């Protein structure tokens, strides 16, 4: 069973706290810069797109229909895209505020910490937190896989213009001003896989290292992974080394239990779609057809990975009953190890299983500015979880695995000293 994330956002009873649209926000005292123990690359952070994201980046004929921010009579702010209102969601940017105020309530930009949507302030918050480089995902406006920009309007030409404008903005205005600090991650074009593949090749030449894709496209009303429909895009990613990031929630849904269960159950189970996605992508045989494909499961944690590998090995006893894996040289667990990477949020119990998971397959993240974020204490959290591990393992997990996966060089001085930037 799953629940639609848009339905969650519309449920004012999902959290106990929060303020009204015009109730303002409480900001906690400004934190001091944290002590740095490690060089860190965060494999999962987020952007709240600033109001000028699309300005000047779409053809003039679409200027009045492209996404723009408007202020409503009650003082609240919302995006409007082709006459459809798409409000900012409070959960997108809650760092620096009391937990009691966390909610889905739409937020004004001045009710968010500035680093959520301003790149210079973001870099300052990364410096404060001790994060050298970061992969940044879109937020509510585009959708985690870019689906809202493409499916909110029926005008495919407008959708393509908005999609391209977001990618242009990301590489130029978000990743561009501070070289080396943001790892460029593009939106996919979902409405035509051949065109989507051409965009991957084009964007690879522009410096994009990753693409955010839906963990379960069929839940967006698109063909499933098992149809072969997505092969052109996956081939392009494999051939260019573009990492396919599967962020939980990119299907527009979250795992759920019964209809009358308390909302906590959704928060607890949110990670579970990473495990579902790993199995679905594995048995789609996409990583078999494209052995160079790199799939990274973002914000799903790592605590479930060793158990899944055990289960995959157990299934080998009777895989002939199904026939799906017949004639494939590697086992499912071996393909999982070869083609998949996993991101730890706060998984203190899981690192003892790092050899089974593959220490080279584990990344860390800070999830700024979402409610799961470890900001501004990411360095302390990492030290608590892996500070006692061998130094080679710590180096791999904190930055080296991500630098290798995303082909993102870290200056030698920063490798040697996390205070060097």
Provide a compact summary of the structure:
With 421 residues, this protein is of the alpha/beta class. The protein has one domain: TIM Barrel (Alpha-Beta Barrel). It is 33% helix and 13% strand.
Describe the structure.
The protein is of the alpha/beta class and 421 residues long. It starts with a strand and ends in a 5-residue tail after the last helix. The chain has helices spanning 5-10, 119-129, 147-151, 156-174, 193-206, 231-240, 264-269, 272-283, 286-289, 305-315, 332-339, 354-357, 378-386, 391-405, 412-416; strands at residues 2-4, 41-46, 68-71, 77-81, 84-86, 133-137, 182-183, 185-186, 210-213, 243-247, 253-255, 295-298, 340-344, 362-364. The chain has one domain (32-46, 117-407): Metal-dependent hydrolases (TIM Barrel). The mean pLDDT is 92. Strands 8-9-10-12-13-14 form a six-stranded parallel beta sheet. It has a three-stranded parallel beta sheet with strand order 2-6-7. The protein has a three-stranded antiparallel beta sheet with strand order 3-4-5, with no helix packed on it. Helix 5 runs parallel beside helix 6.
Largest sheet: 6 strands, parallel
Helical segment count: 15
Question: Residue-averaged pLDDT, rounded?
Answer: 92
Number of domains: 1
Radius of gyration: 21 Å
What structural category characterises the helix and strand content? alpha/beta
Topology, element by element:
Elements: E1 2-4, H1 5-10, E2 41-46, E3 68-71, E4 77-81, E5 84-86, H2 119-129, E6 133-137, H3 147-151, H4 156-174, E7 182-183, E8 185-186, H5 193-206, E9 210-213, H6 231-240, E10 243-247, E11 253-255, H7 264-269, H8 272-283, H9 286-289, E12 295-298, H10 305-315, H11 332-339, E13 340-344, H12 354-357, E14 362-364, H13 378-386, H14 391-405, H15 412-416
Parallel strand pairs: 2-6, 6-7, 8-9, 9-10, 10-12, 12-13, 13-14
Antiparallel strand pairs: 1-11, 3-4, 4-5
């Amino acid at each position: 069973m799953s629940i639609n994330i848009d339905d969650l956002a519309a449920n004012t009873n999902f959290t106990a706290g929060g303020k009204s649209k015009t109730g303002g926000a409480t900001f906690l005292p400004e934190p001091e810069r944290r002590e740095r123990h490690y060089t860190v690359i965060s494999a999962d952070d987020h952007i709240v797109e600033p109001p000028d994201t699309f300005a000047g980046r779409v053809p003039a004929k679409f200027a009045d229909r492209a996404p723009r921010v408007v202020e409503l009579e009650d003082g609240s702010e919302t995006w409007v895209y082709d006459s459809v209102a798409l409000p900012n969601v409070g959960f997108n940017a809650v760092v620096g505020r009391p937990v009691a105020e966390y909610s889905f309530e739409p937020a004004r930009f001045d009710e968010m910490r500035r680093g959520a949507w301003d790149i210079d302030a973001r870099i300052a918050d990364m410096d404060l937190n001790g994060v050298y480089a970061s992969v940044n995902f879109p937020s509510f406006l585009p959708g985690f896989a870019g689906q809202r920009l493409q499916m909110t309007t029926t005008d495919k030409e407008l959708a393509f213009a908005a999609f391209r404008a977001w990618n242009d903005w990301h590489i130029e205005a978000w990743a561009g001003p501070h070289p080396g600090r943001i790892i460029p991650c593009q939106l996919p074009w979902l409405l035509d896989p051949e065109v989507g593949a051409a965009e991957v090749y084009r964007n690879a030449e522009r410096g994009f290292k990753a693409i955010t894709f839906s963990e379960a496209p069929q839940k967006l009303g698109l063909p499933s992974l098992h149809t072969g429909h997505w092969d052109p895009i996956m081939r392009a990613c494999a051939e260019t080394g573009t990492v396919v990031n599967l962020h939980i929630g990119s299907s527009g849904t979250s795992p759920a239990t019964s209809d009358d269960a308390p909302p906590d159950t959704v928060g607890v189970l949110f990670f579970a779609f990473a495990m579902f996605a790993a199995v679905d992508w594995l048995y789609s045989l996409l990583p078999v057809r494209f052995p160079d494909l790199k799939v990274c499961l973002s914000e799903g944690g790592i605590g479930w990975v060793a158990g899944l590998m055990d289960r995959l090995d157990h299934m080998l006893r009777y895989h002939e009953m199904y026939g799906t894996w017949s004639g494939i040289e590697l086992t499912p667990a071996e393909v999982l190890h070869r083609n998949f990477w996993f991101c730890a949020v706060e998984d203190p119990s899981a690192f003892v299983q790092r050899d089974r998971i593959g220490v080279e397959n584990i990344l860390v993240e800070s999830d700024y500015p979402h409610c799961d974020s470890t900001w501004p204490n990411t360095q302390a959290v990492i030290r608590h979880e892996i500070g006692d591990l061998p130094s080679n393992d710590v180096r791999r997990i904190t930055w080296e695995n991500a630098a290798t996966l995303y082909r993102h060089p870290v200056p030698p001085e920063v490798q040697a000293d996390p205070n060097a930037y």
